[in-house]
Amino acid sequence: MQHEIIIAGFGGQGILSAGRLLAYAGMLENKNVSWLPSYGPEMRGGTANCHVIISDEAVGSPILNSCTSLIVMNGPSLEKFENMVVPGGIIITDKSLVPEGPQRKDVDVFEVPATQMASDMGNLTFANIILLGKLVAATGMVSVESFETALYKVLPEKYHHLIPNEMEAFRKGMEY
Amino acid sequence: MAIVFQRPHALKEKPLHYCPGCTHGIVHRLVAEVIDELGIEGITIGVSPVGCAYNNYEYFECDMVQAAHGRAPAVATGIKRVHPDKVVFTYQGDGDLAAIGTAEIIHAANRGEKITTIFINNAIYGMTSGQMAPTTLEGQVTTTTPFGRKPELHGYPVRVCEMISTLGGAVFVERVSVCDIKNINNTKRAIKKAFQVQMAGKGFSLVEVLSTCPTNWGLDPVEALQWLKDNMEPFYRLGNFKGKDLEV
Amino acid sequence: MGEKLLMKGNEVIAEAAIRAGCRYYFGYPITPQTEIMHYIAKKFPSIGGTFIQAESEVAAINMVYGAAAAGARVMTSSSSPGISLKQEGLSYIAGAELPAVIVNIVRCGPGLGGILPSQGDYFQAVKGGGHGDYKMVVLAPSSIQELYELTVEAFNIADRYRIAVMIMGDGTLGQMMETVEFRDREEIEEADKSWAVTGTRMEREHNVITSIYIDPEVLEDLNNRLQAKYRIIEQREVRVETYNCDGADIIVSAFGTVARIVKNVIRMAEKEGIRVGLIRPITLWPFPTETFRKYAEVPAAFLSVELNAGQMVEDVRLAVNGKREVYFYGRTGGMIPTQKEILDKIREIYKNSR
Q1: C179 pairs with which residues across the strands?
Q2: B207-226: per-residue pLDDT in tens?
Q3: How many helices (H) and strands (E) does chain C have?
Q4: How large is the average pLDDT for residues C128-151?
Q5: What pLDDT does B234 receive?
Q6: CA-to-CA distance for C296 and C317, rounded, in angstroms?
Q7: What number of H helices and E strands is found in chain A?
Q8: CB pair distance less than 8 Å for B48 and C24
Q9: What is the pLDDT of residue B152?
Q10: DSSP string, A56-94
Q11: Residue B110 resides in a domain
Q12: Residue B248 lies in a domain
């Protein structure tokens, strides 16, 4: 089994760190993982994306030409990556920022108002975590426990006090 | 019988290859005498330049490294950072230091690298046969300024001491001359002080030595010394530019 | 092995260098490899390392020259335009026979080019980018774990032969994260460095590090000695991965990131009944010529896939020596061939060769 995930949006939305958390959680489950950030001209206009692979096999190319799951946190990213999702794959959008959902009919679409939900929780930076919750619920690619451990491993210690709230956001995403 | 004069230990017993009347030999000897007097031969590492003195690693008894053109201060930086307890010096000419190696000397000085640079300024490229140097004087005839150096075409002579002394990391900067006995003695004093400044861990030290190149100037050795006095000394002011009163 | 970590390629290079005993690093910032410098700047103070952000690539490589002459394990890193500036120093390092490790996280050119991945510096690295007859050992890792292993190995090879070793990656490898497991401690080969400038202590003849030999006979002797050393390295230090080559219809040659894409393509081709093998040179110099010779008559044809306009393919052709057609597929400018593009090329060659 190989999960191929693209996460895309604006810089500052926690796109790259969301991918990193996912890869880390995969690694904790002894899966083979890779994480590749966009860099260079792609970053112009403040967009950011990353390619994450979580696989039972050795990871071949870290560069994805297609993906099984797509999370998008802005309109341009949906436009850019929608057609890269394989039939039967998953698209998760932040409905608060991407009001017009995907056109695709051959994939599972989850539109989660993550930014609104995060705002209601009082911390906008939780939006990416909410979307990851939905992804994990829809695919089971990593366990909730692994994800929580990954948070402790990846986040600097000064943010550890926020992790219980992040996990609450994560669960809200799972349940949405 | 008392020995009153002999070859410094730090100088190998090997004939120098320099042209008759060239003052490189004098400066080599002064550096060696200073190394002897400070008793530092065993802990000194020198860096040879590209230019007439490219192979002075054959003359000094201490460990030596030959550097690419202009890069001696960067090479010396690498050596000194590995061996901070050693005394490291570069020996560079005006083309090496003030043209192709301008960036390296300025930044080594500015970082305050604890190295000593002996800078030979004879206002001309020697080894490649008499081309214009950054320090060539206005009107001076060279093989690449056959009608004399014209500032509007070739720019102005570079005053290295004045430039280096503005940098924070440079703590001892002095210009001297080897045109006569008095000045030769003064040159030795300055070189010694520069080494002592390094050994005291104060920062970067540089001694610019106004020197002659009779061959490429087209003068005999005595005329060359006179030309240095008459032409170079008025433009390149002798004296200390920084660190005169530094305690070492 | 220790704990599994998820780390960026560039950071792994820096960490591996530290573990290999490197305490001197001189460099100048350039994308996409600056994380190496950031990591070192942060870690070196607490372990007694020396880091200088040099005024230029030229100065940095000459600081490397000085530190290597002084007997230290030393590294610099850069990306293509910066590596071009270092060529002068690399030639001197070769001439003076100094051990040093140089990292090139290649970006695309020519000129200022772009900052995306490329393998356009293959010629420069393996054919000698500076002046004179010299070689560097060139290592081309394709995973983060291998980046670690080869960085450590680079220091050992450098010391073993008094030679410059280049680690050649690309922006993808430098920027991506993957699992890495570090050993608890490294096997650091003890090298004889009695030649280094350390001060004579008045106990030995002076040591001289130089690359200038005005006497032609002496200089030819040096060149002969260098060439003899290179022949020994060619015998002992070749590293290559072969995959699926026995009975292959087509053998693809690729290194670094591209080899990983090719591995995916091999699986896709297998489903169509095309057996594709891979020869992945891990040392670009010394080149695994013998491996190509061994398989020269196995496939119907060879295909070299590279992020350039056709560079390694020349060495593949020399090794295959006319026994089979050697095709080429490459992208430039930071474009990365998709799996489908490579598969299409394989299909085409497969069809034509039957």
Answers
A1: C6
A2: 999 999 999 999 999 999 99
A3: 13, 15
A4: 97
A5: 98
A6: 10
A7: 6, 6
A8: no
A9: 97
A10: SSPP--SS-SSEEEEEESSHHHHHHHGGGEEEEEEEEEE
A11: yes
A12: no
Kindly report, residue by residue over A3-13, the tens digit of the pLDDT: 999 999 998 89
Task: Give how far A31 is from chain C: nearest CA, Å.
Answer: 9
Tally of domains in chain B:
1
* Residue of C88, C207, C212 with shortest CB distance to B54: C212
Asked if B79 and C69 come within 8 Å (Cβ–Cβ), the reply is yes
**Residue C237 DSSP code:** -
Query: Quick check: C2 pLDDT over 80?
Result: no
C50: which chain B residues are within 8 Å (Cβ-Cβ)? 81-82
Nearest CA in chain B to C212: B66
Task: Give residue B108's domain range.
Answer: 24-242
Phi, psi of B44 (to 5 degrees): -100, 140
User: How distant is the Cα of C278 from the closest Cα of chain A, in angstroms?
Assistant: 13
ipTM: 0.94
The reply to whether B6 falls in a domain is no
The C-alpha of A34 sits at a distance from chain C's nearest C-alpha, in angstroms, of 5
| CATH hierarchy code of domain C242-352 | 3.40.50.920
pLDDT(C153) > 70 = yes
Which residues of chain B are at the C interface, by a Cβ-Cβ cutoff of 8 Å? 41-45, 47-48, 54-55, 57-58, 60-68, 71, 74-83, 86, 103-104, 106-107, 111
- Does C199 sit within 8 Å of B78, measured CB to CB? no
What are the residues of chain C with a beta carbon less than 8 Å away from any beta carbon of chain A?
Answer: 4, 6, 31-32, 114-116, 171-172, 175-179, 257, 260-261, 263-264, 267, 334, 336, 338-340
**Mean pLDDT score of chain C, rounded to an integer?**
97
Q: What is the mean pLDDT of the segment spanning A15-25?
A: 97
Smallest CA–CA distance from B113 into chain C, residue: C52
User: What's the rounded Cα separation, in Å, for the pair C93 and C101?
Assistant: 11
How confident is residue C353, by pLDDT bands cut at 50, 70 and 90? confident
Quick check: is B208 in a domain? yes
Q: Which sequence spans correspond to the domains of chain C?
A: 4-236, 242-352
Chain C partners (3+ C-beta pairs within 8 A): A, B
Higher pLDDT, C3 or C39: C39
**Site from C177, C336, C342 to mutate, A interface, most A CB atoms within 10 angstroms:** C177
Indicate the number of domains in chain A: 1
| Coil/strand/helix, residue C52 | strand
- Contacts of A among chains (3+ CB pairs under 8 A): C
Q: Which residues form the domain of A159? A: 2-175
What's the gap in Å between the CA of B200 and the closest CA on chain C? 18
Contact call for A and C: 3+ CB–CB distances under 8 Å: yes
Chain B residues near residue C212 by CB distance under 8 angstroms: 54-55, 66
Q: Which of B69, B142, B133 is nearest to B100 (CA)?
A: B69
pLDDT tens track for B25-38: 999 999 999 999 99
φ and ψ of C282, to 5 deg = -95, -35
Are C24 and B81 spatial neighbours (Cβ–Cβ below 8 Å)?
A: yes
DSSP for C99-143?
Answer: -EEEEEEEB--STT--SSB--TTHHHHHTTSSSSS---EEE---S
Please give the share of chain A, as a percent, with pLDDT higher than 90.
92
- Do residues B225 and B184 touch, judged by C-beta distance below 8 A? no
Question: The domain that contains B116 carries what CATH number?
Answer: 3.40.50.970
Distance from CA of A158 to the nearest CA of C (A): 18
Q: What is the C-alpha to C-alpha distance for residues C272 and C343, in angstroms, rounded to an integer?
A: 10
Q: In whole angstroms, give the CA distance from residue C341 to residue C339.
A: 6
CATH number of this structure's domain C4-236: 3.40.50.970
